[in-house]
Amino acid sequence: xxxxxxxxxxxxxxxxxxxxxxxxxxxxxxxxxxxxxxxxxxxxxxxxxxxxxxxxxxxxxxxxxxxxxxxxxxxxxxxxxxxxxxxxxxxxxxxxxxxxxxxxxxxxxxxxxxxxxxxxxxxxxxxxxxxxxxxxxxxxxxxxxxxxxxxxxxxxxxxxxxxxxxxxxxxxxxxxxxxxxxxxxxxxxxxxxxxxxxxxxxxxxxxxxxxxxxxxxxxxxxxxxxxxxxxxxxxxxxxxxxxxxxxxxxxxxxxxxxxxxxxxxxxxxxxxxxxxxxxxxxxxxxxxxxxxxxxxxxxxxxxxxxxxxxxxxxxxxxxxxxxxxxxx
Amino acid sequence: xxxxxxxxxxxxxxxxxxxxxxxxxxxxxxxxxxxxxxxxxxxxxxxxxxxxxxxxxxxxxxxxxxxxxxxxxxxxxxxxxxxxxxxxxxxxxxxxxxxxxxxx
Lengths: 328, 104
Ligand code: SF4
Ligand code: SF4
What we know:
The complex is a heterodimer.
Chain A: H1 2-19, H2 27-30, E1 40-41, E2 45-48, H3 52-69, H4 80-87, H5 90-94, H6 99-118, E3 124-125, H7 135-139, H8 143-159, E4 164-167, H9 170-183, E5 190-193, H10 194-201, E6 207-208, E7 211-215, H11 219-224, H12 229-237, E8 240-243, H13 264-279, E9 284-287, H14 290-300, E10 305-308, H15 309-315, E11 322-323
Parallel strand pairs in A: 1-3, 2-4, 4-5, 6-11, 7-8, 7-9, 9-10
Chain B: H1 9-13, H2 29-33, H3 43-51, H4 54-59, H5 61-66, H6 72-76, H7 83-97
The site of one iron/sulfur cluster has 15 residues of chain B, from helix 2.
């Protein structure tokens, strides 16, 4: 067990140091969400994914392998794998999600781009230079590796002369807004999540999605970044009635996701408890983080439908004006 | 029970001035509220750090790495203990001194 934990951390840290991501994925798949959007490259304001949504299907492939291997998803490569991984990307051999598995995660950043356009925001993308933030390595305490990676990411923003970054998920938001400034002297970048941007500017829904949804706040948005009101305001504008589970807002309950890379069983148990809380208040739930989404969806089975907030918001902008026919 | 205490342990674990396990007054709110039901982290492990009981700290590796860093305990802590930052510092200590990750 101690060896497996140390090897897992070592492999993830080596990947970030050598390949700029804990789990390097093909560049074409990392930027598939931009297809059809005709985004400009760079500019004052960019929409930044930190590859968080795109990474999820690859992480899931590794977690599935873990279920065959033991308590830590890279346990099968103990010792030997740690050495091999330095010269060869082991994850590349293990993780091959299908295009169907990838499509939901490509859709979410695409949704966000469409919503920001509706709100009249002028933004570009960094495409293949949109790098992973290093959030997992920071959480695992490998600060020396994170510090070097943070500087690499910041240099990319400087190269493109970016002044403002619009983020999607809570982890990238927290890293770029609150963590990087503690590692980089003179760090200057305005960072806001798209939920905050849309709440401020309005996103122009054309119909009201009558219905109830249980809200699952992300720990990182609610307790690290103070993002609590914006998603409620947006869901309300979309016509939905937001139901608060027993733990919500600043006192939200974690989905269990952060335990997944080292202790997947603990992660699954916590997700099942959280699904129970959400199910107690509504038959549908809304998430705003890819880790929450995947972890809760796996635990949800058929008892509750989980969707990302961007899916709900975009649906309120599509179709004829007026009330929906009860379909969410 | 360890035979030798290491009075400088807290200094060696702490990464910056925000590291404050000694602020804990052992009220137990964090233990009561933790969604994972962690029994020894934060307060007991923090006490081992403050008391210099390194062996006991090392025995709790699994709890140190299981913590979700969800901050539910931290926003409820009456003593303003920087629980998640302290847990990250403990992980950094394991990374360096047990897993030998740094400088590789
Ligand atoms: S809630 Fe704070 S003061 Fe109370 S035991 Fe936990 S860390 Fe210590
Ligand atoms: S931060 Fe860790 S110790 Fe605190 S409530 Fe969350 S899982 Fe439990």
